[in-house]
Amino acid sequence: MTIIPSTSSVEDEKQLLRKLDTTILPWIMLMYSLSYMDRSNIGNARNIGLSKDLHLTDTQYSIASSSFYIGTFCFGTIGGLMLKVIKPYTWLAVCMIGWGAISTFQALCTDGPSLAGVRFLLGVFEASFAPGCALYSSFWYLKSGLSLRIAAYAGTSALSGVAGGLIAYGFGSASALKIAAWKSVFIIEGLPTVLPEVGKSHWFTDEEQKILLHRRTRFTQNLDNEIDLAQMKSAFLDYRLYLFVLIYSGLSLSLAVISIFLLTIVGDLGYKAIYANLMTVPVYATAYGCLLTTAWASDRTRMRGIPIMIGGALSGIGYILLGILTSDKARFASTFLVVTGTYIAFPIVLAWIMSAFAADTKSGVGVGVVIAVTHAVGVAASNIFPKHQAPRYLIGYIISGSLCFFAAVAALLMILLLKLENHRRDRIYGKPEKAQVIQMTGLADKAINFRYIL
Q: CB under 8 Å to 17, separation ≥6 — which residues?
């Protein structure tokens, strides 16, 4: 693979980057926020009558919540790689139409088993989307700016929490609805996703296309146009994959807890019924603002592990405070720590995987496996906050907090291991020259002049 020539100036690249940020990125952000809204709206629906109308027990609600994560676990690994087989905008659009339709069908459920079945299908269609978005973003952006972009779209799950809370609050407050408020939530939040229009490369001129290709080949020659079996094998044999799974598992559990039980937790703090939806808005909004700031700093400093450690520690402390404090106001303030810590960390893990595994196929496998396996943790999230333990939820807080601290420790271990590997390569091969082109071919991150971001 030869380097794509380009006569572009620094200003040309800056202009192209601004165009990417106003064309490709907004579509990814919109799709991701809708996907998260569709997966988490069961929590809002429960708060405005779902459990009562369907006569759901705590166990049935937990099974319905868990079934989504079972679907994502079973089908998530192939997600990123499908973008190497099918055109990205086609594959992402298929996923989006599928989960939008399935999410709307939740309004037709009449009992616990039907709700669990629909939620499983929702997980199947959403399984490929999260890893697909991470790999798709790497097609457009350099690794040095990827953390902020992944944070921008992944963090919209916080904004979708704001929007979902407001929508549920509005329907829950309405008194003249012809159908149940929870059914209205499923329909209104599901329908927009069946009308997608994904960013396509025809938005860019021929010269801009050359600049894009030149940016991708300036530092690494790795434009594999199909699935590389050697890289797939390398991903599964790389211990870093399984350490990333451990890091992401703790954060994934916390993320699942937030999406499913934040409303319940806030409601049990004294903010009852519909008003609880409204009280989640400042929590999510704060988390998104902190996430963007942290991701920007991560890209500027080329550090991934430290922000993850900080996020995991903040969430862990938040769960401890929720478990030991007695003041409702103080416990509500603790939810800010839980949500903010989780949100500033988990998107950066995805950016770290993309940079650590380097090549497209290996990165796609890595992100897909990590997200799929850790989604299985979401099954646990549906079962560690039983209603009869309200409002203390000691078991849930202990498990969630412990895994967040574990994620922080695992991130520290990853930093140390990658630093040792960088030193080993410097000692054997010498330090690579600055701006040197990395000849990856099938080696991916095993190339002798490749160095890991810490």
A: 145
Question: What is residue 221's three-state secondary structure?
Answer: strand
> CA–CA separation, 356 vs 350, rounded Å?
10
Kindly report whether the global pTM for this prediction surpasses the value 0.85. no
441 Cβ contact list (under 8 Å, min separation 6): 1, 221, 222, 447
Asked whether the bond before 391 is cis by omega within 30 degrees of 0, the reply is yes
* Model pLDDT for residues 77-115, shown as the tens digit of each residue: 776 677 667 777 777 778 888 888 888 888 888 888 898
CA–CA gap between residue 349 and residue 355 (Å, rounded): 10
Tokens of 361: 């196929």
Nearest to 65 by CA among 287, 382, 441: 382
Please state at what angle helix 360-375 crosses helix 229-237, rounded to 10 degrees: 50
- What does the alpha-carbon distance between residue 410 and residue 406 come to, in Å, rounded to a whole number? 6
Q: What are the structure tokens assigned to 151, written together?
A: 């944070």
In angstroms, the CA 148 to CA 302 distance is: 11
3 state SS of 439: strand
Cβ-contact 98, 129 below 8 angstroms:
no
Report the 10 Å Cβ neighbour count for 324.
Answer: 13
Q: 226-256: b or e for each residue (b if 16 or more CB lie within 10 Å)?
A: eebeebeebbeebebbebbbbbbbbbbbbbb
Phi, psi of 394 (to 5 degrees): -60, -45
